[in-house]
Amino acid sequence: MFCHHCWLFSDRTSSSYSPNWTEVDIGVNNFKNGLEKIVKHEQPVMHLNATSCFMTTKYRITKDETVISQLTSEEKKRVERNRDNLKRHIDVVLYLGRQGLALRGHKECGRRDVNEGNFIELLKLLAKYDGLLNDHSNPQSENRFYLNSKIQNHFIESISKEITDTIANEMKRAKFFAIIADSAIDHTKVDEFSICLR
Asked: What is the pTM of this model?
């Protein structure tokens, strides 16, 4: 027989520590006057502290108020904020694509007096009215890298793949479709070839 509370939470460095109630392999194996031994064991401060720790831990676990759950909750909030921020960036890329506008400008140096291109300038405009975007477009923000030209290229490639997959799925479902192709040579003698599916 052993004390579950003391087994989990007793102070093993204390001078009043006794392994009789805390070590499972030792325990109390003489059951003569067992009830009196239990009552006697429950009196010392060490047992009362262990019981208090046990009850506090049990309460926190059942109410989900542990440090781990609080950290997990904060991490979930941070991930959700980053996703919301990412959605705004993708919407800007989609908007510029629909309007047929270039994303990048001549210089993207982070200076206020230089036009940094449609993507960054539109995000700056939206950040004036959107607290989340403002926090993330702050030069000290860890998520400022979303403005990087490589990340912009990843956005474009991902959106392009989604559009291509959507078109391919529509073609598979359609009974009939038409292909229109056109080619034109620009002033640098590069052949521009376009395909339209209907």
From this structure: 0.54
